[in-house]
Amino acid sequence: MEPITIGMSQFLDFTLKHTMLSKMKKVQEIKNQGAYHPIRDHWKEFREALASCCKNQRDLRDMEVLLRDIPERKKNSYASLLDVFLKFIRNKDVTAFVPPNVHWKYSDALLVRATPEIGLTINGIPHLIKIFFKGDTVAVSKRNIQPTLTLMEDATKDCDLLAYTTLSTLDIKKGKLHTLDRKNPLVLQALRHEAQLFLQIWHEQAVFVD
Question: Which residues pair with 170 in a beta bridge?
């Protein structure tokens, strides 16, 4: 049987639900979304511009050029985000590199896409960075940052990384970088329990009514 594959934000949104009913509804929502479709991905072009800079070793300030032809409906939100991002890298010695393509796996039954959006060497220190786009609607706190970084750390453990590579998440709406300072094995254990529960709910295939 093929494993279920979902995005990191989908899985972490599930883990942050407080009640069993809300978790059940989240699973149903993910199932109903079906396959990825670009029209639902507001930040698609932004991520693609970042990936292009990494792959082609372009100056990150070139993103302004790469994003010139985005759809009109996205221009205001993209301009605001790009302004914060360029302020974040200003006055830093920054070069981009291609991050590893990784998944977090649970029991060969669940794959969570965990590839960082960007690799940045900042003032000589390589960072693998997952970008947090939800700053307007979800508060960035230790409660949601630590699971993200723990999941990334476990997903990249077999990658050929420099020993001092830093795992980070960037609250791009505020230009603030959060790093994994201290590992907590209980967080990884909790993520595995959440994955087990996710699979149980998924396979029950219940119909939920609001």
Answer: 131, 177
Give me the tens of pLDDT residue by residue for the chain, a chain 210 residues long. 789 999 998 999 999 999 999 999 999 999 988 666 666 778 889 988 888 888 887 888 888 888 888 889 999 988 998 999 999 999 999 999 999 999 999 999 999 999 999 999 999 999 999 998 865 556 677 677 899 999 999 999 999 887 789 999 998 888 899 987 778 899 999 999 999 999 999 998 654 544
The closest alpha carbon to 111, from 17, 15, 203, 199, belongs to 199
CB neighbour list of residue 108: distance below 8 Å, 6 or more residues apart: 3
What are the φ and ψ backbone dihedral angles of 27, each rounded to 5 degrees? -60, -45
Q: What strands, in cross-sheet order, belong to the sheet with 110-113?
A: 4-7, 110-113, 103-106
Phi and psi of 64, rounded to 5°? -60, -35
**What pTM value is reported for the model?**
0.84
Domains and CATH numbers, the chain: 4-204 (3.90.320)
Contacts of residue 174, defined as CB under 8 A and 6 or more positions apart, other chains included, come to: 84, 135, 140
CB neighbours of 118 closer than 8 A, spacing ≥ 6? 50, 51, 53, 54, 96, 99, 129, 131
